[in-house]
């Protein structure tokens, strides 16, 4: 267990955690992060420094309770199709089961997305023998709508290989769009009722500005980079994501989970460390942002730690920007 959680403070300090997917299961907050490890390799834009190979599950009864580390729930060696880099995961509940969705490189070095199941939100999770057919890239996030239809949204640029899939097939030397061309959007597909396969081909989500024009690839303050998350508030769908190179967490709003979404603004400005990755969850009639930075490691090797902050909405449904380092 750790100490009691506090806003903008690392949830745990005994391991490095990142990319938190937070959910309320069985009236308890469960966090599904990736697990940063020490490494002696190259640090580059391809993400070779992120050599994560397993997952832990964290949970707490509420924000006045200690954080419990439920231990290792899945390791890359247990996944037949995977070779390395178990990056940002997500979890979902349906059919009386808990599902853990995760990216990893297959044995050809191509990122795919797999799924594992458990009878408990705390795991351990048993992986399927093969990755989800039709999946690619990284950062799966699963949204289950009020009609019980589940969607998986995913995709990340650069190390996440999203540019390499523009033709529908993996092209090793593919480059991204020109700066004045529409930016690449995340992909979304419907999941089967058993949550183990896609029932539709991955569809690119369109993100537009207030005038209805696609956000261009050169607009690095607003364009999609990685870390998609969908949540629903007052009948509207919110797509939030990282801008990557400008280190912001931003969001757009739409009327359908498949898009299009209209860009709105920034949720979280840049934090210590290169990446930003998050989740948004409602708990006991309040909303919370879970995110990460590198404050615990002081930026060494970009090892990260999970934090949280309360998230609030304006009367018009827009989100108020959060200060990650408020004065005490």
Automatic annotation (TrEMBL):
UniProt cross-references to Gene3D superfamilies, sorted A to Z: Glycosyl hydrolase domain, family 43
Keyword list, A-Z: Carbohydrate metabolism, Glycosidase, Hydrolase, Polysaccharide degradation, Xylan degradation
Pfam families, per the entry: Glyco_hydro_43
Stored CDD domains: GH43_CoXyl43_like
Keyword Hydrolase: yes
SUPFAM superfamilies in the cross-refs: Arabinanase/levansucrase/invertase
Keyword rRNA-binding: no
Annotated PANTHER family: ENDO-1,4-BETA-XYLANASE, PUTATIVE (AFU_ORTHOLOGUE AFUA_2G04480)-RELATED
Annotated family: Belongs to the glycosyl hydrolase 43 family.
Protein name (Swiss-Prot/TrEMBL): Beta-xylosidase
UniProt source species: Paenibacillus turicensis
């Amino acid at each position: 267990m750790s100490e009691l959680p506090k806003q903008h403070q690392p949830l745990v300090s005994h391991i490095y955690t990142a990319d938190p997917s937070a959910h309320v299961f069985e009236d308890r907050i469960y966090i599904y992060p990736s697990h940063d490890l020490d490494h002696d390799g190259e640090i580059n834009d391809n993400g070779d420094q992120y050599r994560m190979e397993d997952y832990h599950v964290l949970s707490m009864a509420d924000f006045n309770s200690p954080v419990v580390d439920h231990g290792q729930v899945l390791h890359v060696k247990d996944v037949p199709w995977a070779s390395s880099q178990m990056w940002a995961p997500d979890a979902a509940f349906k059919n009386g089961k808990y599902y853990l969705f995760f990216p990893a490189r297959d044995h050809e070095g191509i990122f795919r997305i797999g799924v594992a199941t458990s009878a408990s939100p705390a795991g351990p999770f048993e992986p399927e023998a093969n990755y989800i057919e039709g999946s690619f890239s990284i950062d799966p996030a699963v949204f289950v709508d009020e009609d019980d239809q589940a969607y998986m949204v995913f995709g990340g640029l650069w190390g996440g290989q999203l540019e390499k899939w523009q033709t529908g097939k993996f092209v090793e030397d593919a480059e991204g769009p020109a700066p004045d061309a529409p930016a690449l959007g995340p992909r979304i597909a419907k999941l089967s009722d058993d949550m183990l396969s896609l029932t539709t081909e991955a569809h690119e989500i369109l993100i537009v500005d207030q005038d209805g024009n696609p956000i261009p690839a050169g607009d690095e303050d607003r364009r999609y980079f990685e870390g998609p998350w969908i949540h629903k508030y007052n009948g509207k769908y919110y797509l939030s994501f990282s801008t990557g190179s400008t280190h912001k967490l931003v969001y757009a709003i739409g009327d359908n989970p498949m898009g299009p979404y209209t860009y709105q603004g920034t949720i979280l400005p840049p934090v210590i460390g290169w990446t930003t990755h998050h989740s948004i969850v409602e708990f006991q009639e309040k909303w919370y942002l879970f995110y990460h930075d590198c404050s615990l490691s002081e930026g060494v090797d970009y090892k990260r730690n999970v934090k949280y902050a309360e998230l609030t909405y304006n009367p018009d449904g827009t989100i108020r920007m959060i200060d990650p380092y408020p004065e005490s």
